[in-house]
Amino acid sequence: MAHLFVIGSPSLDTVHIDGNTYQSAGGAGMYVAMAAVRAGAAVTLFGPRPERMSDALRPVAERVSEWIGPSVPLSEFPRFEIAHHGTRAEYFQMDLGAEMALHPEDLPEDLSLYDGVHIVPLGRADLQRAFFDACQERGARFITAGTHISSLRDYPDDSRFLMENADAFFMNEEEAEYVFGSAMNAVSRPGTILFITRAEKGALVVQGQHKTEVPTPQVKVKDPTGAGETFTGTTAAHLIAGVHPALAAMRAAAMAAQKVSAIGPQALMSDTPPPAIPVDARVRINDTQVARASAIIKNLQEAEQHDFTGEYLPLVGHPAVLDYFFSVTAQQFSFWETKNGRYHKPMIAGIDGKPFKGSSYLFKAWTRMADRDPDFFTPARQAKLTVKELKDVFRADDGSDPMPAVELHAAIANQYGRDMLAMGLSAEEFVRKAQASETPLLTFTRMLDHIGGYKEDPIRKKANLLVVCLTQRPEAFFKLSPGEQVEPVVDYHCMRACLRQGLIDVLDEELAAKLKSRALLTPDEEWAVRYAAWLIQFDVERLSGKPIGAVDWFFFSYTRSHCPEMTDPVCAECAMDPVCARRKVFFQPVIRTTFY
Fold it and tell me: The CATH number of 279-307+481-596 is which of 1.10.1670, 3.90.550, 1.10.10, 3.30.70?
């Protein structure tokens, strides 16, 4: 269980909604803390503690692991009186009380004991910054912070410092408009993730110049108080547990939607499981088929880990191999052609007199450069690659450039190189920094969340593939700590297998028709299938007892050879045949993406 240290006070609130008045616990510190607890984190709350516990605050004290800070009379506790008029809040009273008496010197001496620290606005950005500095001095591993429009206006320099130096920073749309002109203009400094909440429009996750729009479930709003802090606490809890920022925001949007459908923090005090990101209603995971398939994979000899060596990969011990894998894995996407809005054929071309398909061709083309120009793989070279140069790298024996989306490949190479340079990292330094951490995998994937070619995908297909490559290569470039486990690597072979074997049932006729006719899908249609396939891989790993590297190799290699894209499945030779649903008409989702 990840442990979050929250700096900020609960308050005693009076809330007016639709002519009714409610008394409840409130405050940014309380909402962040309770949301984090509901999301599965342990929480230590640093803020004023009441000398006499009130009924409103007792549930807070019972749910946090520890509540530390100065003991004060209830009369000195922060108090807010708020009236809600639709999406507009009117404050009649804003008394920060004893929260303003919090001092950074009262913090615990060693904050490295916690997985992360969150600092609420505290009414003044200069005080918030003083806490930030103290947290860094006391070894905090991961620091997040939020803001308020008054802090941005009254303390612009301190607010800007926090926004650019916190590991993650939270603001709402009004605040983003004040800083950037509009939320869509927002950018974050390398190394910082920016989250912008947008009420019923959901949220925006900003990773450098890349933005992910996260929708929010549509619910009847009873009490919007604390919605932003609920989003913040849930996101922070998932971030310190190692979840991708966009996926963390999806879970946070679901939690915030549940919170606003009840009065005060009632929904956050529930002992029921937190709301999950639902599987799209257009598809359904077939648990019976998943169990049957897992039983086969459990005893399948072919389902073993791949060592990422071979004729189209660099020799073991090649001096450029680490930079090679970092740069080539970012390019693992889009090896197929379209015609008339449908999948046409996979990319197959010849190098040195031998045909290679898709990712194998990419590996081989990249490997040619290992001896011709070893510096080719470095971030500095990748940052400046042109489309013309990349076409030469991909040149086939017949003189053609067979890559269907070479411009996208050039763009990803450039973004990868620029982000690595902005972070001041080489591949070797990247691995060394992550390996020195107590949690190498968490540190590694969290760092990749800032690197082009990796940061964009909420379920980290290429990031996890890179970890698998580095851990399974004979050089053993990277080692995980006990208990750390790589998450699923979901590509189109996995999705095709899940659809054909019946692990995923397609309930929507329009989506089914598109999958059968190999038509281009919309992003939400593709996500419906891919997210279900991602969840299925977790189940297969658990039920089969196979590590995710072996599960991935089964879905990629075994499925590719026995249930290929362009020819009939070889059912008689397939170990899955006894349990397969034989839905041979299904194809994988067809969409041009850099994710896979």
Answer: 1.10.1670
Maximum C-alpha span of the chain: 83
Fold of the domain spanning 3-269: UDP-N-acetylmuramoyl-L-alanine:D-glutamate ligase (3.40.1190)
Under the banding of pLDDT at 50, 70 and 90, the label for residue 302 is: low
DSSP type of residue 82:
E
Contacts of 103 (CB under 8 A, 6+ apart): none
Q: State phi, psi for 408 to the nearest 5 degrees.
A: -65, -40
Residue listed under structure tokens 């939607």: 257
Alpha carbons 75 and 253: distance in angstroms, whole number:
34
Of 337, 367, 338, 339, give the one whose Cα is nearest residue 354: 367
The answer to whether 193 and 249 have CB atoms below 8 angstroms apart is no
- In terms of Cβ atoms closer than 10 Å to its own Cβ (0-12, 13-18, 19+), residue 301 is exposed
Q: Is 320-332+346-473 a CATH 1.10.340 domain?
A: yes
DSSP structure string for 108-122: -S-GGGSSEEEE--T
pLDDT tens digits for range 6-37: 999 999 999 999 889 999 999 999 999 999 99
